[in-house]
Amino acid sequence: MSIPVTLIPGDGIGPSIADATVRILAAAGADIAWDRQVAGMAGVARWNDPIPDITLDSIKRTRLALKGPLETPVGDGFRSINVALRKTFDLYANVRPAYTIVPGRFDNVDIVLVRENTEGLYIGVEHYIKIGDDPRAAAESVAIITRLGSERIVRYAFDYAIAHNRKKVTLVHKANILKFSQGLFLDVGRMVAQEYAGRVQFEERIIDAMAMHLVMRPESFDVVVTTNLFGDILSDEISGLVGGLGLAPGANIGATAAIFEAVHGTAPDIAGKNIANPGALILAACMMLEHIGDRERAQRIRSAFETTVRDGSVVPRDLGGTASTDQFTDAIIARLE
Length: 337
Description:
The protein is α/β, with parallel strands linked by helices and 337 residues long. It is built from 11 helices and 12 strands. It has helices at 14-27, 40-47, 53-62, 81-89, 147-163, 181-195, 207-216, 228-241, 279-291, 295-311, 325-334; strands at residues 3-8, 32-36, 64-67, 93-99, 110-116, 120-131, 134-144, 168-173, 201-206, 223-226, 249-253, 258-262. The radius of gyration is 20 Å and the shape is globular. The two termini are 23 Å apart.
């Protein structure tokens, strides 16, 4: 029986890399029934809404989505796409793997960053403060961290480590300064870590030291778990360690739905030119297959992709070649075993 998945091709290069990914999954024998929907500027053009209700309803039915890059509309009256998705489906875990495919500055990077996705400074509790006659003399943003939110994201990181044969979880915080909010996150993390003692190694790092050590010896890190803002920053940093966002997939996981995505932008300057690199979305699709238990197929696709990239003879220009999107896709398909 086919597995229903909501497909949101996205904007800019999104439709091109989505079509390439769909072709590769079909060639690998993945039995998926795609429900194509729109969001971003395509959603505005069709429904005057960057995240239309019909798209949300589709995800509610399928509980799985693969999403290309989306352009966020500028102007009042439009909902934030990411906020709407996170709130609607309580997508509390943002998972961003980064590993070395082509040796470069760092040869042995293999890090999975698990970011709390719904709390912290990004929860959106903020306001201006009037001083004298100036209604915007100051501004205040509130970072809200709950025991429930902290426990479920740290536990997710440990469970992920066990499920994927990972050896260590590093919890990143700033509890030395933010003693209440970050202190709560750290205390809960220590409590959860005790339950996994003997199975998964645990360590703590202060955020600024972590940022430094990531660029000095990234090979020493495995699974990293942290709060929303720190995770947003560190996830792009670890992507940079392996060549940038072009090879950076992401997943947003909740109890009732999971959305997998390419985390790079829409690249409007190359849209429609058949030269975009679909790598990030292909790897996101592999994460999706693993999520539904199809690990063997995910590994076959990932192996074909990595071999094609390392060979270097048929790769797009951002990977140092001259191949078109279609040629790169064909080369990957030809290597599927």
